[in-house]
Amino acid sequence: MSGSLPFASARYVRSSRLVAYLTLAYLLLVVYASLYPFAGWRVPNDEAARFLFAGWPSYIIASDVVVNILAYVPLGLMMTLLCMGRVPRWVAVALGVTAGILLSLSIEFAQAWLPTRISSNLDVLTNSIGALWGVAAAHVWGERWLLSGELRRLREHHFRAGARTDLAFVLLALWLLTQLNAEIWLFGNGDLRHLFPPDLGLRYSADAYLLLEAGVATLNFAGVAFLIGAITRSFSAAALSVAALILTALILKTLASMALFVPGNPGLWLTPGSVLGLVAGLMLWLPLARCSPAASTRAAAICFAGGVFLVNLAPENPYFVAALQILQRGHFLRFNAMTGLLSMWWPFLAFAFLVILTRSYNSDRADTGQPGK
């Protein structure tokens, strides 16, 4: 059929499975960020949909407009890719645009029940523009590059087959999002200190603080590297993937520091402890980089557990605490709340996934009669 993709072909089923996982994860994050803090629900005094016919807001924050547009670009892209291969391309495009608009309308309608949120027709417009950009990207590049082209071939050649690799991609994508949180050390996920007494009686020297910060970065660097090693087919693929992931994480951390603080401080994360941690993390991973996937999985779990322990052992950074007092308001502030929640729970999502991954490797060895390693 002209203008459509081959229906029900195996390659599109494999590609769309990853897209489906990413779409679901991203959709949940968008809903959380849009309705945070989920408190004080009440019935609106006037018509909930009245905002649709109101005038434009009298005060428009440029950064909020940019965030509203960019936030829906991935959604439009992924929704369209999800439909491609199942329906004609023009239908996939129409469904992608419609999904973005309906999601934005639903969220703005729900915000009418939240006293801390204001429903806005400008938000619907900017969200729809973002979804349209994503749909256009899927229409232009989706078939050639994303579903059946270069990226698919790279995935099949360098990464292990199966749904577990797709889930690992989703987990690593979420890990990248946690780097946009302004409240954590470099790679410092799993912070549960707000659940503990404020003063445990621990005292730290400057050297101890530096070593704690370095330890957090070291173990988390090594943890994601071992996770990548568990799903790649070769050392070269793992090394390139680790380099690309860490570089992307550092870029995101820099952008977050620039966007979230007034004035912007792109080097806020760049401390002696974080630099030491980057080097030490690489040195910890390299000697063990060629170990089996099962061993890499166990090593990743140990590293993440150690990272969580050190994060919760560390004291508050007084510089960060002071800087957070001047955190920019608007959508960036709510976005930081979303990344904060994701950062807090990410290691535990990783633990659950690594348990599943370990069991699958054990099952594979049992089926082939290989001894456990």
* Percent of sequence in beta strands: under 5%
| Helical proportion, percent range | 55-70%
**Poorly predicted regions:** 1-9
Q: From N to C, what is the helix and strand string?
A: HHHHHHHHHHHH
* Count, helices: 12
Number of domains: 2
Indicate the structural class. Answer: mainly alpha
Radius of gyration from the CA trace? 22 Å
Shape: globular
Mean pLDDT: 81
Structure description:
Residues 1-9 have low confidence and may be disordered. The chain has helices at residues 10-35, 62-83, 89-111, 121-147, 150-158, 163-178, 206-231, 235-260, 272-285, 293-313, 318-324, 331-368. It starts with 9 loop residues before the first helix and ends in a 5-residue tail after the last helix. α6 (163-178) packs antiparallel against α7 and α7 packs antiparallel against α10 (293-313). It is globular, with a radius of gyration of 22 Å. It folds into 2 domains: 10-156, no CATH class; 160-368, no CATH class. The protein contains 12 helices and no strands. It is mainly α.
